[in-house]
């Protein structure tokens, strides 16, 4: 396999992992958090159920953490080596390309801190429940950080769907790519609303 073919294969894998499993996990995670809008007990029940799944440690390591590390580290490499044409060609898609890379860096930092504040604390004997999240976002600085982090992560996922569809050959025509732009925009708005509503429910 040539260097060019190898790079293309890695980018395809990078794109795939952003949707499966990471995109699916993102939506599932936000929906679990959204149960806090119903009640504290509803969130604790949902969180306890997720934490008691069979082979939960295996699932977290191989379905979440390893894909996140690969997607995140390679994504940061792309972000800092990519050539940006915003100043020269100020087209919509060039701006989306730039925002995709910026949001990816923000998302990676946010996820790392979020994992430390929640899952890592479990290793120290803490329990992921309503009170844990409430204590974090009750701090105005952390609240703003979480809202920015969630919006950046959702944008990265939604806009990444557009790239995924192109990279994997599902949308080749201008019309299909334009339709996918609208679809990804709707996904961004809807999922961001769910995420922000979930965060505010913990205050």
UniProtKB/TrEMBL annotation:
Transmembrane segments: 12-32, 52-77, 98-116, 136-158, 179-202
Subcellular location, principal: membrane
CDD domains xrefs: SQR_TypeB_1_TM (cd03497)
Keyword Secreted: no
Matching InterPro entries: Cytochrome_b-558 (IPR011138), SdhC_prok (IPR039023), SQR/QFR_C/D (IPR034804), Succ_DH_cyt_b558_Firmicute (IPR016002), SuccDH_FuR_B_TM-su (IPR000701)
Keywords from the named record: Heme, Iron, Membrane, Metal-binding, Transmembrane, Transmembrane helix
Name of this protein: Succinate dehydrogenase cytochrome b558 subunit
Location(s), subcellular: Membrane
Upper classification of the organism: Bacteria, Bacillati, Bacillota, Bacilli, Bacillales
Organism: Salinicoccus sesuvii
């Amino acid at each position: 396999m040539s260097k060019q073919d190898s790079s293309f294969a890695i980018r395809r894998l990078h794109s795939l992992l952003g949707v499966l499993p990471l995109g699916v996990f993102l939506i599932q995670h936000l929906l679990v958090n959204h149960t806090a809008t119903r009640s504290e007990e509803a969130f604790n029940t949902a969180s306890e159920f997720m934490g008691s799944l069979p082979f939960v440690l295996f699932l977290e390591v191989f379905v979440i953490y390893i894909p996140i590390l690969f997607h995140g580290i390679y994504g940061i490499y792309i972000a800092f080596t990519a050539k940006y044409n915003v100043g020269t060609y100020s087209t919509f898609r060039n701006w989306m390309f730039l925002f995709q890379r910026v949001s990816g860096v923000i998302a990676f930092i946010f996820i790392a801190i979020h994992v430390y504040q929640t899952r890592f604390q479990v290793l120290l004997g803490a329990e992921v429940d309503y009170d844990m999240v409430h204590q974090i976002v009750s701090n105005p600085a952390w609240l703003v950080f979480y809202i920015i982090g969630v919006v950046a992560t959702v944008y990265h996922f939604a806009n990444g769907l557009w790239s995924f569809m192109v990279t994997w050959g599902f949308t080749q025509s201008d019309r299909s790519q334009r339709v996918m732009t609208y679809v990804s925009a709707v996904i961004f708005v809807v999922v961001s609303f769910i995420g922000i509503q979930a965060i505010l429910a913990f205050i």
